[in-house]
Amino acid sequence: MPYWSLYLEGQGYSYLQIATLMATIQLTKIVAPSVWGYIGDRTGQRVRLVRFGAIFGSLFFAGVFLEPGFYGLLLVMLVFTFFWNAILPLYEVITLRVLGKHRDKYGKVRLWGSVGFIGAVALVGGLLELVEIQYLPWLLLPVFAGIAVSAFLVPSERGERKQQSAPVGSLKAIVTHPAVIAFFAMNFLLQVSHGAYYTFFSIHLEQHGYGKLAIGLLWSLGVIAEIGLFLIMHRLSRRFSVRQVVLGALVLTMIRWGLIAELTSVLPVLIFAQLLHAASYGALHAVSVQYIQGFFGKHHHGQGQALYSGLTFGAGGALGAWLSGFLVDGFSTSAAFWGGAAAMALAIIVTWRGLQPPPEPQLAH
């Protein structure tokens, strides 16, 4: 993610084409997690589905090396991400099932994804100081191979088919609950606001004179803050209500986008803005995963996780990336971050008016 937009820029694509290509990464999250989540719920074979997604996602990514042009690359990224976006939602369910009553320790497990991100970004950033950005796809191959191999180190689940006695109409009742609608609307706007960050942050930094290693380290700083948040999230959840945590995180996210828009060249301010990633991703994601478990319960957990990924990271992320492309193309990268701040202002209003805490998971039906 930190370097792909720079790679596309190096291939000669326009800002709007870059935004469209980056949006496909999010776009398939609308459909793919629901498809894979449904299959996982029906069969109970989530580990095997993770392996399947890792292998076929890696194989289809190889289409990048054919240099297929804009529409060809669009197709490659759509097919690749359809398999790739199956992995994380399935793994979230696997992790929470294994943790059981100790689900408050989810953050301590999830932080290893953040550690991996930091290591990869720092290593690739250092290598890109030595080689041209056009070699980025080759640097990704060992990472994809490692994920495919590690998926086979996880023990297979015993096939556990979905109970046919599950209440048939309950999923519709859950998704039409006012608190659930407010929850999804808040997360949708949150991901719209991240469109400029995931699509143009690296280009924005490069325009302000930062090198590729510095760009990678700044991305990593945000994830380090995220790790710190995951480590203390269980304490925050005991001291503050869900509503307080979410509203506080949204306000800090709005401030973050404003700082990046206007004060990127002031390094201490930029460092502070990146530390706020602990709020804009860490806190809100940790709350959301438990929120889904609480409202969707045992019978619809997989589909609830898929809806969360599809409607927020998928639809919200894709729309945010695309809209940011228009703002950058018509104005500047700073304008795109101000657009993100505006989306956060709407999310704060939605949350203030409609968000309620989720029920305890064992009581949800």
TrEMBL record:
SUPFAM superfamilies: MFS general substrate transporter
Major location (coarse): membrane
GO molecular function: lactose binding; lactose:proton symporter activity
Entry-linked PROSITE patterns: MFS
Membrane protein topology class: Multi-pass membrane protein
The keyword Manganese belongs to this UniProt entry's keyword annotation: no
Gene3D superfamilies: MFS general substrate transporter like domains
Lyase in keyword set: no
Domain of life assignment: Bacteria
Residue span(s) of domain Major facilitator superfamily (MFS) profile: 179-365
Transmembrane segments: 12-37, 49-66, 72-91, 111-129, 135-154, 174-193, 213-233, 240-259, 305-323, 335-355
Localization (cell): Cell inner membrane
Record keywords, A-Z: Cell inner membrane, Cell membrane, Membrane, Transmembrane, Transmembrane helix, Transport
Gene Ontology CC entries for this record: plasma membrane
Matching PANTHER family: 3-PHENYLPROPIONIC ACID TRANSPORTER-RELATED (PTHR23522:SF10), BLL5896 PROTEIN (PTHR23522)
Name the UniProt record assigns to this protein: Major facilitator superfamily MFS_1
Taxonomic source organism: Marinobacter nauticus (strain ATCC 700491 / DSM 11845 / VT8)
